[in-house]
Design goal:
By secondary structure, the chain is mostly helical. Helix content is 30%, strand content 5%. The chain has a two-stranded antiparallel ribbon with strand order 1-2. The longest helix is centred in the last third of the chain and has 10 residues. The model has no long low-confidence stretch (mean pLDDT 90).
Length: 76
């Protein structure tokens, strides 16, 4: 685990959120990061999905996972 700003912001909550393990075929919140509060997106700490919805829906990771999962895609 790590990243460019791990020393400054800490580890992204999506990487350790076991509640979302298995969603969209991912480990922890890695493939459902939009549903994890306080994720580190674009180098900033985000809020809840309701607060970051527009950013998430426009995110290349969100779109990639949605397209890969097709009908099996899980939003929450």
């Amino acid at each position: 685990m790590g990243g460019a700003k791990v020393n400054e912001l800490g580890i992204c909550p999506a990487s350790s959120d076991t509640l979302h393990t298995g969603k969209n075929g991912g480990k922890n919140g890695g493939r459902s990061c939009w549903s994890v509060s306080g994720t580190l997106c674009k180098g900033i700490i985000t809020g809840t999905f309701a607060q970051k919805k527009a950013t998430c829906l426009d995110c290349h990771v969100f779109r990639l996972i949605r397209d890969e999962e097709g009908e099996q895609f899980v939003l929450f």
